Amino acid sequence: MPAIALLAGLIFSVPSFFGRAAAQEALPSGLNRDFGSAGFLSDVIVKDQFTGLALGGIDPLSYFIDGAPGLGKPKYDLTFAGALWWFANIGNRAAFLDAPDIYRPQFGGYGAMAVARGHLAEGRPQIWLLQDDQVFLFYSHANRVAWQQNPKELAEAARRQWPLLSRQLVP
């Protein structure tokens, strides 16, 4: 059963961002806008410490649709896993809700090469790679180039390191 059907009918209030009222347009089936508070996703997401914005406002689907990071719009926002996400349109937001594990960056948005090496560094949304239908962010262009020399092995190393590193993060 799809996640949308499981969560149908749940309605929660949303904090006001950018001077807008908490009552925003309803999501399909009245979905909960803050899945993180419901324990839906335990990962800690890299976000702006002042605004709570993930990916600096980049629509996570833009990597897949446009082949490049593209800004979302505040009017199509969603609070998910403790972070505020912006989307270019309502369709992208709905697609993200239907399959967040596909569209959100790997390792919570931390730099993939840093994670593979056993430490944490914030990934930069403009330095990215789409590999095996997953988005990987990197701290620097040099890290991205190094990753591309051995992508499968480094992805495996990062996946082994992530459970240990993610325990060090405070939600």
Output the strand order for the largest sheet: 1-2
What is Rg?
A: 16 Å
Uncertain stretches: 1-42
How are helices and strands ordered from N to C? HHEEHHHEEHH
Helix content: 25-40%
Largest sheet: 2 strands, antiparallel
Please give the alpha-carbon distance between the first and last residues: 29 Å
Number of strands: 4
Principal-axis shape: globular
> What's the helix count?
7
Give the assembly state of these chains: single chain
Which percent range describes the beta-strand content? Answer: 15-25%
Helix and strand content put the structural class at: alpha+beta
Give the overall average pLDDT.
80
Description:
The chain is built from 7 helices and 4 strands; from the N terminus they run ααββαααββαα. The protein has helices at 3-7, 62-65, 90-98, 100-103, 112-116, 141-149, 151-166, and strands spanning 73-80, 83-87, 124-131, 134-138. The longest helix has 16 residues, at 151-166. The model is unreliable at 1-42 (pLDDT under 50).
Structure at a glance:
With 171 residues, the chain is an alpha+beta fold. The protein has helices at residues 3-7, 62-65, 90-98, 100-103, 112-116, 141-149, 151-166; strands at residues 73-80, 83-87, 124-131, 134-138. It has 7 helices and 4 strands; from the N terminus they run ααββαααββαα.
